[in-house]
Amino acid sequence: MRTYEITVRHEDVEFASYFVQARTAEEARAEHEASNYGTKIVSVKWIRNK
Fold first, then answer.
1. What pLDDT does residue 32 have?
2. For 2, 16, 22, 26, which has the most beta carbons within 10 A of its beta carbon?
3. Is the pLDDT of residue 24 over 80?
4. What b/e readout covers 15-43, taking b as 16+ CB neighbours within 10 angstroms?
5. CA–CA dist 6, 18 (Å, integer)
6. Which H or E run contains 44?
7. CB-CB contact of 18 with 6 (8 Å)
8. pTM (2 decimals)?
9. What's phi and psi for 17, nearest 5 deg?
10. What's the CA gap between 22 and 10, in Å, rounded?
């Protein structure tokens, strides 16, 4: 599992970041979209563990 940071825009005004555990970026995006209606995903970024 990897950690992804998903940056979204709420109603074209406010930005927010969420952290999701998933195997792929596509899986992280799908998981976020399933539980957060009305948001526009701006980016999905893999956070590398150090």
1. 83
2. 22
3. yes
4. eeebebebeebeebbebbeeeeeebeeee
5. 5
6. strand 39-47
7. yes
8. 0.75
9. -120, 140
10. 23
Q: Give the chain's domain count.
A: 1
Taking the C-alpha atoms of residue 24 and residue 14, their distance in angstroms, rounded to an integer, is 26
d(CA 3, CA 49): 8
Percent of the chain predicted with pLDDT > 70: 94
Q: What is the pLDDT of residue 50?
A: 58
CB contact at 8 A, 2 and 44: no
Helix or strand (DSSP H, E) at 16? strand 14-22
Contact of 4 with 43, CB cutoff 8 Å: no
